[in-house]
Amino acid sequence: MNKLLIKGGRVIDPLAGKIITADILIADGKIAAVGSGIPAGEGAVMDVTGKLVAPGLIDMHVHLREPGFEAKETIETGSRAAARGGFTAVACMPNTNPVADNEAVISYIRSRTQEAGLVKVHPIGAITRGSRGEELTEMAALKEAGAVALSDDGRPVASAAVMRRAMQYARMVGLPIISHCEEPSLSKGGAVHEGYMSTLLGLPGIPAAAEEIMVARDIILAEDTGCPLHIAHVSTAGSVRLIREAKARGVPVTAEVTPHHFTLTDRAVAGYDTGTKVNPPLRTEEDVAALKEALADGTIDVIATDHAPHTVEEKDVEYQLAPFGLVGLETALGLVWTELVEPSILSPVEAIRKLTVNPARILGLPAGTFQVGADADITVIDPELEEVVDPAAFASKGRNTPFAGRRLKGLPAATIVRGKVVYNRSLAE
Ligand SMILES: NC(=O)N[C@@H](CC(=O)O)C(=O)O
Ligand SMILES: [Zn+2]
Ligand SMILES: [Zn+2]
């Protein structure tokens, strides 16, 4: 039997809401025991005294770009970036080429994931063919092939009738809809948040209303159809209000926020660094305050990166011409710890919940806990470790980050997937 003892760490149980000092014994890739003073026996030992041990982190919103855009990222480089960022699993969006709107692409992603042999990659299927917003995909077949959710992320489903029908079918099939909320007639041509900064910088704006109208529409449709709805990358105070009110009424809606949206405002665009160009755009201070409040009160269930790599050449153009998106996998945990846990906006347990059990539940994954017999997917966190973000050190092909040079405290120390150490900081540096 292949054994590994994770010894002496402070183990976070996000379900029980507790942190206890304990050892975790892994045998043949599964959790074999959790308790104090477990003998190592003949197996290997990883001493994690002083560190936190969490169930493997899950990032339910990434773009791995394969098939079709391998110059930006591949499943292998994206998996490596995930492992380096402390994630044991990611869910990847279907805006590849071809779009993941059929079983063949879903199967391809799964076999490339196997070949990479690093983290778990759960494919998200498209809502509509080619994500063109017209005809629905074969949702049952996508689920059968391994899709864990449906989304046309990157492109809004402009037609309410199409979205309504999609929710009716998705509910029947048993898959959640992840909505990229953007009203195209309002966002068209925009590059940054519409407000003081867009005027000052002379850049075309995307109003908050472009997001909020679609959040309102999709909440109404989720209530109408009973389909579980997950709102991707929430960025405005108005969206938060709508989601909070819908949850209070029992609408089956959940929501995520990205580290860049709870950390930065549109002031970061002042230097015209295209690393700040992202969709939805960086908003205002009031929006950031509302997002933090929503994280604290549970209105926002999940922290997800929306990791969106682009090549240096694609980003090295005028602000208006650059593609939207920034890389997030390798800065996420440090930003969560530095911006939310250190200032006590979230407790360590609450932060870990939004990175483990909550996304696992939304996607229906048997993950996010330390149940004996479950896959040994584990993230070791060093809450005292500090580092300055250096994009050149990223495992991702993407270098498009607005966080270069930023000092982060609280970083991944090791990432373990099915008992295999896929990242170990003390060996990597
Ligand atoms: N977020 C982004 O700015 N870009 C994403 C698309 C998306 O998540 O909507 C991408 O695929 O590049
Ligand atoms: Zn999106
Ligand atoms: Zn996205």
Helices and strands, with pairings:
Elements: E1 3-13, E2 18-27, E3 30-35, E4 44-47, E5 52-55, E6 57-62, H1 75-84, E7 87-92, H2 103-116, E8 120-123, H3 139-145, E9 150-151, H4 160-173, E10 177-179, H5 184-187, E11 192-193, H6 196-201, E12 205-206, H7 208-225, E13 229-231, H8 237-248, E14 253-257, H9 259-263, H10 285-297, E15 302-303, H11 312-315, H12 332-341, H13 348-353, H14 357-363, E16 378-388, E17 407-417, E18 420-424, H15 425-428
Parallel strand pairs: 1-4, 1-5, 6-7, 7-8, 9-10, 10-13, 11-12, 13-14, 14-15
Antiparallel strand pairs: 1-2, 2-3, 5-16, 16-17, 17-18
Helix pairs in contact: 2-3, 4-7, 7-8, 8-10
Residues 63, 95, 153-154, 180, 278-279, 306, 308, 324-325 line the site of N-carbamoyl-L-aspartate.
Pairing-aware structural class of the strands and helices?
Answer: alpha/beta
- Looking at the overall shape, the CATH architecture of the largest domain is Alpha-Beta Barrel
> Average pLDDT value?
98
N- and C-termini, Cα separation: 30 Å
Residue fraction in strands: 15-25%
